[in-house]
Amino acid sequence: MSDSSTTRYAIELKDITKTFGSVVANENINLSIKYGEILALLGENGSGKTTLMNMLSGIYYPDAGSISISGEEVAITSPTDAINYGVGMIHQHFKLVEVHNAMDNIVLGTKEKHLKPIVLKEKILNISNKFGLEIEPEKKVYNMSVSEKQTVEIMKVLYRGAEILILDEPTAVLTPQETEKLFAILRKMKDQGSAIIIITHKLHEVLSISDRVAILRKGKLIDTVETKETNEKQLTELMVGRPVSLKIERPEVEEKKTILKVIDLSVMNEDGTMGLNNINFKLKKGEILGVAGIAGSGQKELCESIAGLMKVKTGAVLCNKENIIGKTPDEIIKLGISMSFVPEDRLGMGLVGTMGMVENMMLKSYKINKGFFIDKKPARKLSEILVKKLGIVTPNVETPVRMMSGGNVQKVLLGREIESNPNVLITAYPVRGLDINSSYMIYDLLNEQKKKGVAILFIGEDLDVLLELSDRIMVLCHGELKGIVDAKETTKEELGLMMTGKSLQGVDIDE
Amino acid sequence: MNIFLNFLIASVLAGTPLLFGTIGEIMNEKAGHLNLGVEGMMAMGACAGFMAGFMSNNLLIALLAAFAAGMIGALIYAILTITFMADQNVTGLTLTIFGVGISNFFGEYMLVHSETNSLKLPEQITAQLSNINIPFLTDIPVIGPLLFNYNAFVYLGILTAILCGIYLNHTKLGLNVRAIGENPGAADAAGIKVTKLKYFNVMLGGGICGIGGAYCSMIINGGVWMSNSVNGMGWIAVALVIFASWSPTKAIFGSFVFGGFNILKYYFPKSIITIPNAFYDMLPFIITALVLVITSIRKSKENSQPASCGVNYFREER
Amino acid sequence: MNNINNKSKQPLMRTVKRAERSKMDILKLRIIAFVLALFAGGLFILLIGYNPAQLYGTIISGAFRSEMAIQATIKFMIPLLISALGITLAFKMKFWNIGAEGQIIMGAIFASYFALFHSNWPHFLLLLVMFVAGFIGGGLWGLIPAYFKSRFNTNETLFTLMLNYIALHVISFLRDGPWKDPGSSGFPKIARFNANAHIDKIFGVQFGWIIALILVVVLFIYIRNTKQGYEINVVGVSQATAKYSGMNVKKIILRTMILSGGICGITGMIQATGSDMTLAASVAGGVGFTAIIVAWLANLNPFGILMVSFLFSVLEKGSSVMQSTYGLSTYSASVLQGIILFFILGCEFYIRYKFVFRSKGGVK
Q1: Choosing a second label site near A117 at 20 to 30 A (CA), which of A406, A451, B29, C8?
Q2: Is residue A403 less than 8 Å (CB to CB) from chain C?
């Protein structure tokens, strides 16, 4: 048994360094965590949190440094090694096989012999009862909601008897209520002696769940503090490197005229389910209308049907009283409805990754001049203007955009949309993956447009940001509109309930 | 009736090389590798099998040689696509060009160096390749000749299909393979040795294709070496995978149906209507094209191509 | 002790990403790969009992030893070059058109109709009509898979492939039936074209080579500087992005495949009336497949294609000399081409990745 004077460490990292090409992702990191402790790993996007944890889970191998588990130096060369050492990681993008059911996913890769489904199911339900998880072992993953998928991921780790659990941004996709549930499970695991590392950039969550906080900035470990002895302000300063206010501006615009009116909009998905069901709302000039909802609640369908990319089943979208349903994307762009949509793969559908800024600038305007040939001159000029105006960092305007950093890519995309002087700007997840500095730059850009009288539909995922930036927030759930609320009046809890299907009680403010 | 029975029997015989090719490709695709080199691997198996049989006069050695040759072709593909992460389409196509080329090259090389200017399998091996007579069973009318009077390849093909079906759908290793084909990242994170298992499956599939090739060179032309004996069957096999919806057991049925299209021209009664031979020759290809179109019109989430098929896996991809 | 154990547990070899190489470095890599491929090919030649230096020498001298040899080499190059250019358009769009073989055949069939049945038309009018007919024939054959791809997302790789075989049997149908040369006794074949339908020669080679060179320049400009070329590039990277920016993706796919198939069809016309002087089942003769390798090796750059297809025709011509001198099959050309491409495919890896081997000193 361990000596009472020496603490039993679950993990000790010594001088860990990892580089990707010429990018140093982690530099000389020293960090340790005890059993029965929850450590929060705090840092901005791109600060190297996930890279560091991926070296514990066997996805990456460090260039230098050593890792000890339970006091013994180990080499984790693959996920198998990690599992053997009792390390389980829940990745931000779930590692599940969509067409298999929960059970098959849970036993996947384990060394035990083939169990009969009935025995296996029993075993899984036993474990889930112990930790208070709700799970349907026979449900196929592609039929599951995000939080159900996360439960399967946790179950995978528990099934393997891992004592060290790493969670990468687990709350990013959850409602406030689901987050509370997850935290309850984590506390239970901690009480049973597990060591838990949770990666996050949300300060209030850090304060509510962790015992200690380790802060990373630009690949370096800045400090480790006891949660009891710190506060949001100190953590922010450590994370960003200077005192900043995390308040997002919300300028007021006086004249608000409806420009876009969505009436009874319904969209059918390819698999026959309703992507959108009878949506009604108005979008006004000079406002930011936030859209909240769990991932896959109809955000994509909403954007694409307004942009003319998706076939609409019923309903109308009036832009200045002209129905745009049935128009081609080309015609809709000409009406000044501009969309910048950033799905998971970052470059999304707004930009062509292999092309440079210049050719990306022409994407929507290359047809303007007559003739058979393209004219790159105006696009080059525009690129150079944007580089200066938005401080875009790129070797030159011909460098393929996929080689640029996430923040710069977003600036290129939004910059192009804004330069086309739109009436309506639809933007989905514009700050996904960006550090705080770049995020605020994007918020400022949006606010500037709002002040100019542009109507902005902002699809967001971080409820805190939605609450501060938007004027009004509409909530989608399973393709249905659960209500539109005043962002100044509502609370996160109310939004959370609506996101999981509760309709708004009281008055809609869509007038 | 007799003609129809003969037609069915001939369909099975004509479908057997397709069956091997189809199973081989299913093994590849289930592991996430769209291997367009089936034609090439079959050609390599055709050459190696024939030559080994020609020189050793032993069927088992011929089969092993065909299997090994197919596997070597698959190994080239595996090294390039799994370890070097090269484009699967181009690598597969190159394997086909290379495989067909080297097979015909060696064939002609052997021809030139033979005394009689022709290559014919020795008697003993052709005897081993002739139809198997099972006492009593073969003598049952209709069912006997229909089920119990084929050459060894046919039974080997059906056995391979069933075994591969069990392997993929009812073993732990098979579950692991299917997981890799759907989401290699998930399989990797779950502790499955992705690279090893991919190599295993691709090479096993290549070996099976090689046997199919041996059928083409050793049986179709009556034991005489001819260049290009595989003649497009590898490509039909790739398409048949879709028809069989990635199931080795369904491939049995699919291959025999397509075998039937291949030989229809010899059995279709000329008295009803005379159709130029060329149209019969086109038939399997036209039907395959139609199958492609029909399957693309109705798409389903399950029973479809493994999700990561065609995409190489790199663990540290960000 | 512990430390030593730890070292041995490190992976023997692992793959990591590296900073992307410059264009110059990539070119160097490819040249190294090419040289390695020649060594591997040499090993192969050694294994079958010949002297590699001697055989390679035969290939080179075989392709260049006389004016006639050079002309023959160029003759090999013309169809390869033109169809590789056609394929390039489709591949730029990530449309895996491996149906060049069939498109060549259809182009040849359409053109042959005029050569066989309207050979009395004025020479240049006839050639022009045949040229257009070749384009239309190939274009139609490219349009079919494009339609199903754009409509139902039908797998184009297999579809175009099936069309190759169908086209081949269309020729055998014509040969055995409606277009059978009545003058040939028993053995079915299509009649030799009237001299009026032959392509003229310039510097001893049919003027197809001039058309090919013109196409190189035209395609280079088309891809780089025209709106349509721009659209092909965008669709090739992401159809979603193309739709989002207001492009009519279906139309672009159809249009590009007509062009791609059409250019391959021109190959068929030039091959039939410039080299074969008749419509034979071997009119494409595998050129459609080799052209894919050529296009890929040249990184879809028209001038690169010019170089690579020249290199490949040296190989083809050389291998035919190898056959007459050493009795080795002309299939040696496809074997060598395969080996070269295997090595180039392998070297692409080093553009973005590298292997890290277990260091002797362990992780430090």
Answers
A1: B29
A2: yes
